[in-house]
Write a structure and sequence with these properties.
This protein is of the alpha+beta class and 589 residues long. It contains 16 helices and 23 strands. Helices cover 39% and strands 18% of the residues. A hairpin with a 4-residue loop joins strand 14 and strand 15.
């Protein structure tokens, strides 16, 4: 790790602001909490949601009205339901994941209206039904604030939140104003590495804020005091309390969602929070709302093995145990019932927060969450690990509610027709759920079939030259070939392309997922690779079918069986490409 900044407040007073490590590793410049700004990423959303609630107070926004009332473009209803501001604030708008230019090393547009109009992401859930964390939804809310207030969004945040709270060393502008930019902490992957350039946030209302620990302390104290800081007030008490209430637990008894804040209760104390991540900065803000205590931490580096995420979670839990200790006693479920319930959970699941209309949907094939049961009847989910990197074990404490065997986090399932259909855990429930995959998307069978299909294609690539050598020099009959050599050669080319295609897609996807893709070439890369994928797999199915017809017409048993294997292999890969949108030709992602 390179450096961190921390703020702790209690009962309207700043208890601690302190820097740790380095703001500039090369210069050995220590973090100064009062001086150095850190990027707080999605904690920026809390400022946007506060602005929204100010406009609710002003009577200019109705939380439950169709947001088209406030827009100069139209977002159509989905499954008969219009979008509301409440949907946006509770991350239940149903939008798919947006990755393109989410963070970029160069400016990617400053006009908020143009940003939200350029591409409206597809929706995969009806509004109000499913948490799907969305930066686009927050940007949309910021644009609505801009339109109903008549002020540019950046100006609005400065005039109505930062200035009243005397947050003079904070900004949501991009690029950061020069007088503050000189004190922005450098960004790192690890403390031993070199620094990285400033990351521009595509959706400014969702992630552009930079701030210091004392400034964030003032923001925390205002919310802990129902919207007031000294003589200044940014929200009425009743508005602040409405914003803080966690009233949307879609998977009770797990943590729910307030109007912008996540529920994060611990040791019987009510806690609301938000965290935030750029590629390099990682932050968390927790408010013990009834105890009038807040703690904020931000790291300027990711750290080895995602250390920043582990550290902020561990700090919060250790802080709570030190100052607000409690012992929780769980019910016990009899072993036979627990084993039956655990077995009902077994299967493959996908995140609600995912890409669905473009090539990144293939991540739903590459990374499916597998729920299994250990010998003691506990749930085991490889994707959910503890600080040591070992998968957690989950023991049932109530019907279809489990707790981490060595921690306090809970997991709960939603039942449909007597069968678990989705689940989530406390730390993620306000933002995302895992939905059980339909059989036709499951890697339980698609995984082995795809491996077999690639093995057949590789065998064909090797076999065709071998057949030619065998026929020419040794007089061996070509039992695997059809009568038309041109068809078979084209099929060989399709097989060669089909084996290469996954590698090309990986070389496109990995930079996109790490925000290092070249924006100038990504479109042509996607279109070209989609075209190659179509030619390889759709063309392969067609050619394999022609080859099969010729084989059954003119060849023996071995050649016929081989032709069926080719049809099946190309068909499997075409199915995967179709289902997981490698053939969508979609360059918005």
């Amino acid at each position: 790790m390179a450096g961190a900044t921390v703020a702790i407040v209690s009962n309207g007073q700043i208890v601690l602001t302190k820097g740790y490590g380095y703001a500039d590793v090369a210069q050995r410049l220590p973090v100064d909490a009062d001086r150095h700004l850190f990027r707080i990423a999605s904690i920026s959303k809390l400022f946007t949601w506060t602005a929204v609630m100010q406009q609710v107070e002003a009577g200019k926004i109705d939380l439950d009205a169709d947001i088209n009332r406030y827009l100069d473009f139209r977002i159509p209803p989905y499954r008969g339901k219009p979008l509301t501001m409440r949907n946006l604030m509770t991350h239940t708008a149903g939008f798919e994941l947006v990755m393109r230019d989410l963070f970029s090393a160069r400016a990617n547009g400053t006009d908020l209206g143009a940003t939200v109009k350029r591409w409206v992401p597809s929706r995969i859930y009806a509004p109000g039904t499913t948490p799907t964390y969305s930066n686009y939804a927050t940007a949309l809310a910021g644009y609505i604030v801009e339109r109903v207030s008549g002020e540019p969004f950046d100006d609005y945040i400065e005039r109505h939140i930062l200035r009243p709270l005397q947050m003079t060393r904070s900004t949501i502008r991009q690029p950061i104003p020069a007088q503050l930019a000189k004190d922005l902490s450098k960004a790192y992957l690890s403390g031993a590495g070199s620094s990285f350039p400033y990351e521009y946030s595509l959706h400014r209302p969702a992630g552009a804020m930079a701030s210091t620990a004392p400034d964030i302390a003032r923001f925390m104290m205002a919310h802990l005091n129902d919207g007031a800081l000294g003589a200044d007030r940014i929200l009425r008490p009743e508005t602040a309390r409405m914003m803080h209430r966690a009233t949307y637990p879609l998977l009770p008894p797990l943590h729910g969602m307030g109007l912008g804040f996540y529920q994060h209760d611990i040791n019987g104390h009510r806690v609301i929070m938000h965290d935030g991540d750029t590629r390099f900065f990682h932050s968390q803000l927790n408010l013990f709302i009834d105890d009038h205590v807040g703690i904020f931490v931000s790291f300027n580096s990711t750290g080895r093995d995602g250390a920043a995420d582990i550290l902020r979670a561990t700090l919060f839990k250790a802080f709570a145990d030190r100052y607000f200790p409690a012992v929780e006693i769980d019910r016990r479920i009899d072993r036979e019932t627990a084993l039956r319930h655990a077995r009902a959970m077994v299967g493959r699941y996908e995140l609600s927060d995912r890409s669905a209309s473009n090539f990144l949907a293939i991540n739903g094939f590459r990374h499916q969450t597998v729920v299994d049961v250990d010998d003691n009847g506990n749930l085991v989910i490889a994707d959910l690990t503890g600080p040591d990197g070992v998968p957690k074990q989950w023991r049932e404490i109530a019907p279809f509610v489990w707790r981490d065997l060595h921690g306090r986090e809970r997991l709960a399932a939603q039942m449909v027709d007597g069968r678990p259909s989705r689940f989530s855990v406390d730390d993620y429930a306000p933002m995302v759920v895992w939905d059980r995959l339909p059989w036709w998307k499951s890697t339980l069978w698609l995984g082995p079939l795809s491996q077999g299909a690639f093995a057949v294609l590789l065998l064909m690539i090797v076999a065709l030259p071998a057949i030619g050598v065998g026929r020419r020099y040794f007089g061996i009959p070509a039992v695997l070939a059809a009568t038309d050599r041109r068809v078979y050669f084209c099929l060989w080319l399709a097989a060669l392309a089909g084996v290469i295609v996954p590698t090309i897609w990986l070389r496109i996807i990995e930079p996109v997922m790490t925000f290092t893709a070249d924006p100038d070439t990504i479109d042509i890369q996607v279109i070209a690779t989609s075209t190659l994928t179509l030619a390889a797999y759709a063309g392969g199915v067609l050619l394999a079918s022609v080859n099969g017809w010729l084989a059954f017409k003119n060849r023996g048993l071995v050649s016929r069986l081989w032709s069926l294997l080719l049809i099946f292999s190309f068909g499997t890969l075409f199915w995967i490409s179709w289902v997981f949108k490698l053939l969508s030709f979609q360059t918005d992602f």
